[in-house]
Amino acid sequence: MGKVSPRRRRRASNKGIPKNAVIVPNVPMQDYCSQIPGVYYHFGKLEWRTTCRDPFNCSKRSQRTFGVRKYGFYEAKMMAEVAAFEWEKHRNFVLYLQTASAGNAVPGHVHSPPPAPPGSPQYYPYLPYECYTYVPAELESPLTPHASMEYYNNAASQLSNI
């Protein structure tokens, strides 16, 4: 009797890049992985895919694809991550409404969605102005020296001297 082949494992996030993968030029290897759950790159078809579960029937799954040839590598990745973020936000809201209608919801509590991907409108890479502990004195005034009329008048006269 022959050996039994091992069962195939399900797709894991750390599976790596297949040996027969089509690699896009000028794209580093770490960019083929996404940190957003449900977003992955299909190496055979050169597309980013995002999957989500239906909020009413968890066994039903939906999928959207974004082709690299149509959108470009990074644009397709960003679109897939934004789509996954929107789906997860919608799913969490529907689940909250279901628990609220059943009377089991905690007042004022909504499931927090995963962090927004870079490039989406909800992503802010910088802290708000109030969060900085040190603010230079010249930024405290409502008008900076560059916003005054004298600065613009002097700039025009300097350009005419050239």
Automatic annotation (TrEMBL):
Gene3D superfamilies for this protein: 1.20.5.2050
InterPro entries for the chain: AP2/ERF_dom
GO MF entries: DNA binding; DNA-binding transcription factor activity
One GO CC term, this protein: nucleus
Localization per Swiss-Prot or TrEMBL: Nucleus
Keywords tagged on the record: DNA-binding, Nucleus, Transcription, Transcription regulation
Keyword Nucleus: yes
AP2/ERF domain boundaries: 35-89
Protein name: AP2 domain-containing protein
Organism: Babesia ovata
Upper taxonomic lineage: Eukaryota, Sar, Alveolata, Apicomplexa, Aconoidasida
